[in-house]
Amino acid sequence: MTAAASPDAPLWQPGRDRIATAGISRFQTWAAERYGAPADGGYAALHRWSVEELESFWAAVADWFDIRFSTPYERVLGDRGMPGARWFPGATLNYAEHALRTADDPARAHEPALLYVDETHEQTAVSWAELRRQVTVLATRLRELGVRPGDRVSGYLPNIPQAVAAFLATAAVGATWTSCAPDFGARGVLDRFQQVEPVVLFTVDGYRYGGKEHDRTGTVAELRRELPTLRAVIHIPLLGTPVPDGALDWADVTAPDAVGADEAGAGESAALAYEQVPFDHPLWVLYSSGTTGLPKAIVQSQGGILLEHVKQLGLHCDLGPEDRFFWYTSTGWMMWNFLVSGLLTGTTVVLYDGSPGYPSVDAQWGIAERTGATLFGTSAAYVMACRKAGAHPGRDHDLSRVGCVATTGSPLPPDGFRWLHDEVAADLWIASVSGGTDVCSCFAGAVPTLPVHVGELQAPCLGTDLQAWDAQGRPVIGEVGELVVTQPMPSMPVRFWNDPDGSRYRDSYFEMFPGAWRHGDWITLTDRGSVIIHGRSDSTLNRQGVRMGSADIYEAVERLPEIRESLVIGVEEPDGGYWMPLFVHLAEGAVLDEALRARVQRTIREQLSPRHVPDEIIEVPGIPHTLTGKRIEVPVKRLLQGTALDKAVNAGSVDHPELLRFYENLVRERP
Questions:
Q1: Between β-strands 206-209 and 212-215, what pairing exists: parallel, antiparallel or unpaired?
Q2: CA–CA separation, 579 vs 558, rounded Å?
């Protein structure tokens, strides 16, 4: 459709044919016949049923997606308490078996399961048959190395096909996967892997980023020294270095004749034995950002992730066998795990390893064009960087196959919605989504049958009882409140690693509102059912009793071409005062003079709130982020309150830890 005619009109809405053919529409019709779902009332009615009849909904999801339980479940929810919900007790299954079952189809076995692209932008396809062959060989080798269900297998790997094969082989044998991207330094990796004590390490010798090679052989040597539980290291020579002493060569481990496998065809490969494990058996360990201490080691289950991801990808993202699914990510971010789960819906997964803006800012759009991506996922920050750089992806690239652009990492500002509509395609489904590593999924976001309004997430996701609560724990509509989930989701952590009494898990999500998951975001649920994300509630700006999320400040300030990025902090001072500085990283050639300061102040005053005009505007050499690209607000706040650097932040979790010295020194210099 054309651009919205009025400020409140949808920017986009699906046509009748799109609604009728969407997987979520077909699911609703089918579930109405078999499970009592409402036949009418559209998405709102379906969502209400999905949270009011939680067990019927998840049983329907398992049935619709033909989840193969090798032993049947006793009931859907054995215990619905949070934390501690017990999903599908009695059931056994295997995630990898579902991820690879397209290889069983002779008509599709030689189609691409994976399309791999690096900074040369050349494509390498890995067929379903070849992926299963590699997983078969690797699983056999892991078993030969003594890897058993529950053992941990780690990957220090970029977003390459070998990482997918290693993960699936780990899941196939019932072991637990965990990974870090190779841009993590040794300390950051050890802070994570030492907690879970892996027995096997898959690793590269280095990686390529921004047109340069980055050697990691020294880091790998340190990991081997500091991880005494390792029984084997499997070396992938991405930069062509020799296999280190005592390590195994990937090429030898996965050779076609390594275990008698034949790569000629899907039906001729050696049988892959999938370990049948309980529904709540650990699939992987993900990690929180770890900015204020050791990262939380978050354990999610084979069955919980399987069900949550088929629902999210097959219904909300509307992915199927004809689709190509591309999301810019690294193996250190939950979006990698989410991307790989595209295999569950028979979708071709596009892997990209490299800089998001190399050789030019529109590089990701070029990858979407070359690979024929139908769903293109990226960060809100990348969209805004393209807008600021004056990119014209719809003009310069053939994006005719891209039906949906999805964004996460931070809220997509209204200008980002408009830019995607104007510069990619007018008939573009824009899905801003929000969730977290903690559930490895989305609480709210994409719904293919609903309209898109500027600055809003379309709706809470199915099976997610999402509410906004005020400080007294009362649900509110049309007002800012805490993001709360009042009923369990299958992908919620089964536990944290090394948290035997569950106290760290409870403190992380259930301390403020016992029995309800409090995520730490400010949100508004609108009266039309959409969701607005305002930013983290633990770094809320509270001036004279008026709360505002930091995301609102960033969205307004970063429209100015002189501001590359910003960071706003509200600091409660010992004398009862409140200091709110705005730190700005300027675009090249820009100068923070009085004229620019006045424009920033005027922008905030007029577009947001006169109460939230910053007390100072301070130029900084850069904004620090977590290793997954999120602005670090709470640790900087602690530095500004006088906390010592080593107590305020775990430097190994920061992309450029040297930037933190600026904020530490600022405290010393400030009167």
A1: antiparallel
A2: 21
The pLDDT value recorded for residue 542 is 67
Q: SS3 of 326, please? A: strand
CA within 13 Å, CB half, 367: 34
Question: HSE-up of 78 (CA within 13 Å, CB side)?
Answer: 11
Helix (H, G, I), strand (E, B) or coil at 289: coil
Closest CA relative to residue 408, chosen from 372, 434, 429, 426:
434
Question: In the predicted model, is pLDDT for residue 7 greater than 80?
Answer: no
Distances (CA, A) of 310 to 462, 480, 515: 12, 31, 26
Picking from 637, 632, 669, 668, the residue whose alpha carbon sits closest to that of residue 651 is 632
Alpha-carbon distances of 657 from 351, 356, 429, 583, 663, rounded to whole Å: 28, 21, 37, 16, 11
- Quickly list H helices, 372-474: 380-389, 393-396, 414-423
Please list, in sequence order, all residues whose beta carbon lies within 8 angstroms of the beta carbon of residue 573, skipping any fewer than 6 positions away: 579, 641
Contact 94, 171 (CB under 8 A): yes
CA quadruple 3, 8, 9, 13: dihedral sign: positive
∠475-480-484 over CA atoms, to 5°?
50
Instruction: Specify the pLDDT at position 262.
Output: 44
CA distance 61 to 63: 5
Q: DSSP letters of 605-646? A: HHHT-GGGS-SEEEE-S---BBTTS-B--HHHHHHHTT--HH
The rounded distance, in Å, linking the Cα atoms of 402 and 423 is 13
Q: What is the pLDDT of residue 608?
A: 77
Question: Alpha-carbon distance 459 to 279, whole Å?
Answer: 28
From its phi and psi, is residue 142 left (phi > 0), alpha (psi between -120 and 50) or beta?
Answer: alpha
Angle at 157 between CA 631 and CA 200, to 5 degrees: 120
With a cut of 60, say whether residue 267 has pLDDT above it: no
DSSP state of 457: B
The tokens for 368 are 């979407």
Q: Hey, what are 339's tokens?
A: 């991307």
Name the one residue in this structure whose structure tokens are 């005619």: 5
Is residue 89 predicted with pLDDT exceeding 70?
yes
Predicted structure pTM score: 0.86
Among 309, 315, 305, 314, residue whose Cα is nearest residue 447: 315
What is the pLDDT, as a whole number, of residue 575? 60
Q: Is 167 left (phi over 0), alpha (psi -120 to 50) or beta?
A: alpha
d(CA 48, CA 466): 11
Helices 54-64 and 23-34 cross at an angle (nearest 10°) of: 120
At residue 665's C-alpha, the angle toward residues 663 and 667, to 5°, is: 75
User: Dihedral, CA atoms, 21, 22, 23, 27, nearest 10 degrees?
Assistant: -80
Cβ(10)–Cβ(451) below 8 Å = yes
Residues near 621 by beta carbon (within 8 Å), at least 6 away in sequence: 585, 659, 662
C-beta separation of 298 from 288 below 8 A: yes
Give the residue carrying structure tokens 């005494």: 228
Residue 129: what are its φ and ψ, rounded to 5°?
-65, -45
Q: Is the peptide bond before 278 cis (omega within 30 degrees of 0)?
A: no
* Per-residue confidence band for 646, with pLDDT thresholds at 50, 70 and 90: confident
Which tokens belong to 392? 């014209």
Q: Where are the alpha helices (DSSP H) in 311-429?
A: 334-340, 363-371, 380-389, 393-396, 414-423
**DSSP letter (8 states) at residue 598:** H
Q: Which two tokens stand for residue 173?
A: 């044998």
Does residue 656 or residue 325 have the better pLDDT? 325
Six-digit token pair at 133? 């062959």
> By the 8 A CB rule, do 493 and 508 touch?
no
